[in-house]
Structure formats: structure tokens, C-alpha cells
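Can you please make up a protein's amino acid sequence together with its fold in C-alpha cell form to help me picture the idea?
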Amino acid sequence: MFFFTWDPFAAMRSGRTTTSLIKVSANSFTDDVERQIQIYENKSYNLSEDNNPLLFWREQQQTLPILSNIAKSVFVIQASSAESERNFSIAGQIVPEERSQLDPECVESVVILKEALLNKMWPTPNYYY
């Protein structure tokens, strides 16, 4: 089985200015990941004083490119519950005791619409077809 993956760093590594699609075998990708995990587990690392994981994975980009990209994707996830708390608050305003029979998909849609309105992300009408 083959799948196509977009490699945004291919152009940077090769010196070209365009990105490319690379044909990758699912088995070879899994083998590459397992190989990189073994390298990571068997190597000893001298960590810096600040223990910044983003700096560590940037240093490992050449030797562990797949694990480095995975780690950088995980570290961009914000460790805050503010957004979910805000959405629960909005949902609580939409679904008071009198409206407790609303369908969950309907509530979700209204929360998304209200969030878009509050954040001024409301789409502008396109009258020119």
C-alpha cells in the first residue's frame, strides 16, 4: 500500500523553492519511525540547562526528522483550558433549563456561530457570483 505525504521541508533540504509530494510506502514509513525510536532510546543526550524541548528537537532534526516533526507538532498544543471554558460558558448561556432538549449538534453549531461573531470572524457575504 502506498500513500502520498506532503513534505514541506523537502525544498529547504534540497535547496529548491517548491515543495513536493513524495511517494512513501506505509511499511517503510513505519520502519523509519521504529528505527528512529530505537536511535532515540539508545543514544545518550547532553541536555542544556533550560531543558527547552523545542531546542532539543531542532538539534535532532537531521538525525531524527520524523520524531522531530511529531514532537514539534505536539509542543504547539496550548496547555490551557481557557478556550474550552469559554465554549462551555457560551453553551451554558445557549442551553438554559428551558432549552435542555436541544440537539447537541444544534448547540455545537450555535456555539461556533456565536464564537465566530464574537471574534469578528463572521464571513462577509459574496454577492458577486
Notes: The chain has six helices and two strands. The two ends are 42 Å apart (CA to CA). The longest helix spans residues 26-42.
